[in-house]
Amino acid sequence: MIEVKDVKKRFGRKEVLKGVSFTAEKGEITCLIGINGVGKTTIMNAIVALTPINSGQILIDGEELHKGSYEKITFIPDAITMLPQMRIIDAMQFMDDFYDCWNEKRAEEILSFFKLDKQERIANLSKGNTAKVNLLLGLAMDVDYILMDEPFSGIDIFSREQIAEVFTSHLIEDRGVIITTHEINDIEHLIDKVVLLNEGYVLKEFSTEEIRENEGKSVIDVMREVYQS
Amino acid sequence: MSVTFNNRDPVYIQVIRHFKEQIATGRLEPGQEISSRRELANKLKINPNTAQRAYKEMEEQGLIFTERNLPSRITRDEHVLNAVREELILEAVDSFVTSIHAINVPLSEVLDLVKEKYENKSED
Known about the structure:
The complex is a heterodimer.
Chain A: E1 2-11, E2 14-24, E3 29-33, H1 40-47, E4 55-60, E5 63-64, E6 73-76, H2 88-98, H3 104-113, H4 127-139, E7 145-149, H5 157-168, E8 176-181, E9 193-198, E10 201-207, H6 208-215, H7 219-228
Parallel strand pairs in A: 3-8, 3-9, 6-7, 7-8
Antiparallel strand pairs in A: 1-2, 1-4, 4-5, 9-10
Chain B: H1 11-24, H2 37-44, H3 48-60, E1 64-65, E2 73-74, H4 78-103, H5 107-123
GO molecular function (chain B): DNA binding; DNA-binding transcription factor activity
Keywords (chain B): DNA-binding, Transcription, Transcription regulation
Protein name (chain B): Transcriptional regulator, GntR family
């Protein structure tokens, strides 16, 4: 389980996270939702210690992040971090050289799942395919937790569908997933849990099936209530 | 297989409903093997935990059964199968009655119309 406990973060004078708490279970897909600029990416960065926090605590399976944690958790940013002149195969080699938990077999499987040609240069890829390569590089790691920042943003509908398919496949298996998004439409049925954020606070944290069962509401119904009140 | 889910009912209940329809219409036969939880999640584009939940409920309701590590199958229990059929028929009739009742039509007129439409449908 990933536990985010009362995390506060300031950039200069601006307090971006004002005491954020939530949990994300292994074997579940947790979705951080918020209109742009509410600190979603900052939270993701904080979980993998890419940005230091001012106060609070983040625990991964009960432990604070340490060197070994990087074999346990991976962060897929919203844009690819590989150099444009690299071919897909070079990016895969790079990952293999740097991470013990890189799983070559799974990487090949994802390549064919996404129908990508590994000789292709990153600079020449479409937006959708760039997003897929970016996902591939994260998903092919043998880790327990995967964080994805806006995996669906700015890509065509068919790529979105293909990426959504990943969530129902064995590629995710029993791993814990946290994704951020500002658009919930096509993924309502794919996620277990929602954390609604607003300007540095968690407004509401709920299970999607429970809210449907107990209150007869869709995720968007709850968002309307919470954000427009 | 493609199912349109609504966003306000629990997905696992909608999945069970989908199976009941398939059973009642004979598209799923007694004793027939069904997809694994993972395959179902993939086909219906739903969360694997939800597929798991639906299967668990269906097992508790006796709609499906699993022997050891084999794939799950549709029940062969006549009582359960008949109950599914009856449940769906009753539900459909109830919703029809509710909407027709609101319009205030005499029953005899409705029944004649139902008969006529039903016979036309069978000829299609």
